[in-house]
Amino acid sequence: MTINWYGQSCFRVESKGVSLLFDPFSKEIGLRTPRLNDNVFLVTHEHYDHNNVKDAPNEAFVIHGPGEYEKSGVYVEGILSHHDNSQGVERGLNTIYVVRMEDIRLCHMGDFGQAKLTDEQLEAIGDIDVLFIPVGGKYTINGSEAADIVREIEPKIVIPMHYKIPDLNVDIEGPQKFLKEMGIKPEEVETLRIAKKTLPQEEIKLVIFKL
Q1: Is residue 113 classed as helix, strand or coil in its secondary structure?
Q2: Contact 93, 81 (CB under 8 A)
Q3: What pTM does this model have?
Q4: Is pLDDT at 129 greater than 90 in this prediction?
Q5: Which uninterrupted H or E stretch holds 211?
Q6: What region, left, alpha or beta, does residue 35 occupy, with left being phi > 0 and alpha being psi -120 to 50 degrees?
Q7: CA 169/CA 159 separation, integer angstroms
Q8: Band of the pLDDT at 202, cuts 50, 70, 90?
């Protein structure tokens, strides 16, 4: 399995002829948009920096919210959450996606804005191998809150997302607070390649993507 990041919350996960794209964004945010030729698209919420699927292939399977889905051997569960810490009053709803492929469980938290996971959400998420979590604050949880949630979920690999990078014109924080809170030296990669047998077993691995 290979994972690539394009900025914000947009990741491509490729495995055995299947390609998933999480939260493709509009060019309005200042970043170069990825090509849209994947089999499955997952949209965590309907904001322009997460839902640019208008040019997705007609045959693509597009997931827009909570529920259980299966496509080409990929199993997806969408879990309802909030984009803010006010029950969605400020910014609406958000979907946490748990994806199972190659016997690896991925969790993409989208623009999760709750200060804490509920017991029901934590139970639904379950055991996770790879966690994608927002850390930039303002519109989502911040670095300190994200670190607390990582400790609750206890993934094998954690990948921060939705933070300030060059050319991004969204006003959010960088990853520094999260990295400090985690206290783990990150591995910097351009592409992450993983397999079930190579997942870390002892300590959490922190991965930062270079764009």
Answers
A1: coil
A2: yes
A3: 0.95
A4: yes
A5: none
A6: beta
A7: 21
A8: confident
Q: How confident is the model at residue 197 (pLDDT cuts 50, 70, 90)?
A: very high
Considering only CA atoms, give the Rg of the chain: 16
Q: What is the 3-state secondary structure (H, E, C) of the chain?
A: CEEEECCCCCEEEEECCEEEEECCCCHHHCCCCCCCCCCEEECCCCCCCCCCCCCCCCCCEEECCCEEEEECCEEEEEEEEECCCCCCCCCCEEEEEEEEECCEEEEECCCCCCCCCCHHHHHHHCCCCEEEEECCCCCCCCHHHHHHHHHHHCCCEEEEECCCCCCCCCCCCCCHHHHHHHCCCCEEECCEECCHHHCCCCCCEEEEECC
Token look-up 């979590």 returns 133
Cα 187 from Cα 184, distance rounded (Å): 9
